[in-house]
Amino acid sequence: MKVAVVGVGLIGGSIGLAARQRLGAHVSGYDPSAAARETAIARGAVIEAHGSVEAAVEGADFAFVAAPVQSLAAMVSSVLEVAADSCVVTDVGSVKRAVAGAIEDPRFIGGHPLAGAETSGVEHARADLFQDATWYLTPTTVTRGVAYERLHRLITRIGAWPTAIEPDTHDVVMASVSHLPHVLANVLVAQAARVLSAEGERLPATGPSFRDVTRVAGANSVVWGGIYRANADALVAAIDDMVGRLTSFRDQLASGDDAGIREWNESAREDRRRLLESDLAGGEVHELRVLVPNRPGIVAEIALALGRATIDIVDMGLYPSSGSHGTVALWIRGGVVAEQAERLVRDLGLEVARA
Ligand SMILES: NC(=O)c1ccc[n+]([C@@H]2O[C@H](COP(=O)([O-])OP(=O)(O)OC[C@H]3O[C@@H](n4cnc5c(N)ncnc54)[C@H](O)[C@@H]3O)[C@@H](O)[C@H]2O)c1
Ligand SMILES: O=C(O)C(=O)C[C@]1(C(=O)O)C=C[C@@H](O)C=C1
């Protein structure tokens, strides 16, 4: 198997390492930076490194575009121009609408691994970066089912959990759970630096809680500048919501509303518990077999219906036939969740059987 990585930085390099170590893939890379190409070879993230997209993508079964968000649409287009008809092309961008709106090709599926670090560059790449991470996928009505299945399987094999989602939903959610936390980390360090220097304290006088919530402050400016700009509308809305929440707590505090403050804190504990629990779904794996018409987009429709209900597909298999219908097998963890998945698939007007 040949995997091409276009943009061999922290994420591209980690995909290269994981594909080589876990799948035994032949990995080739493209990066405009000669230094990144050299380091990628030295770290073993790629076997070949090229200064041309065409050379890197030649003969690839999969191409991952891992450039900064502002370059993704152009780079995905360049890759699709030179990639084989059988090549599955994806990206890893932290914002999904711009790329999804610009590309319409049956070989392309937008993607985003919900894993990373505050560092950047291939020197910080790790083969285990994606272990147990959610990996969002944004298939569309033109996505070829077999391309989705192959990408789903590859992502599973490098240790992550693929989950289908619409680009709009993805970007609104990320504004609150990823982009806003980065903004807040920057604001917190700026405020603390000013307060500490005004009080004459040396700057490192901070405690563990401060270090936890500011780990990502000042992360790579090229990457994060691009993310903030590409998701500006959703991020502005998330900031407005945050300002409203801060103001409301500020008012409770200023008016000495003890009961209100206690209730506010208790509800934060409950919200945190629910957020953590949603990551811990377990149970036995059940197989559903779905009879589907042979048309593009049908696998995307099923994956999105389950993704919307936050149901993970542990594995999937496609069994096309020469007739008008084929079969999609889905493996779902947990009896109750499998029943819910069965109902959702039936609601799409499809026949489902339990294997
Ligand atoms: N850092 C994270 O935590 C994280 C997590 C998930 C997804 N992402 C996404 O991954 C992508 C890359 O981020 P990263 O953290 O690996 O950044 P990085 O700075 O570590 O790597 C980016 C690489 O892309 C190269 N590059 C620049 N312009 C390019 C172009 N036009 N074509 C190809 N390569 C180009 C750079 O030389 C660099 O080697 C971004 O789209 C980001 O949104 C980042
Ligand atoms: O762990 C970190 O340092 C990250 O910033 C990773 C993180 C995140 O916000 O959780 C950052 C951006 C990505 O798009 C996905 C994951």
Automatic annotation (TrEMBL):
EC id: 1.3.1.12
Chain ranges of the ACT domain: 287-355
Superkingdom in the source lineage: Bacteria
Keywords of the record: Amino-acid biosynthesis, Aromatic amino acid biosynthesis, NAD, Oxidoreductase, Tyrosine biosynthesis
Domain Prephenate/arogenate dehydrogenase: 1-283
Sample GO molecular function, one term: prephenate dehydrogenase (NADP+) activity
BP term (GO), one: tyrosine biosynthetic process
Pathway membership: Amino-acid biosynthesis; L-tyrosine biosynthesis; (4-hydroxyphenyl)pyruvate from prephenate (NAD(+) route): step 1/1
Coiled-coil parts of chain: none
Catalyzed reactions per annotation: prephenate + NAD(+) = 3-(4-hydroxyphenyl)pyruvate + CO2 + NADH
InterPro entries in the cross-refs: 6-PGluconate_DH-like_C_sf (IPR008927), ACT-like_dom_sf (IPR045865), ACT_dom (IPR002912), NAD(P)-bd_dom_sf (IPR036291), PDH_C (IPR046825), PDH_N (IPR046826), Preph/Arog_dehydrog (IPR050812), Prephen_DH (IPR003099)
Family: Belongs to the prephenate/arogenate dehydrogenase family.
PANTHER family membership: PREPHENATE DEHYDROGENASE, PREPHENATE DEHYDROGENASE [NADP(+)]
Name the record gives this protein: Prephenate dehydrogenase
Origin species: Solirubrobacter ginsenosidimutans
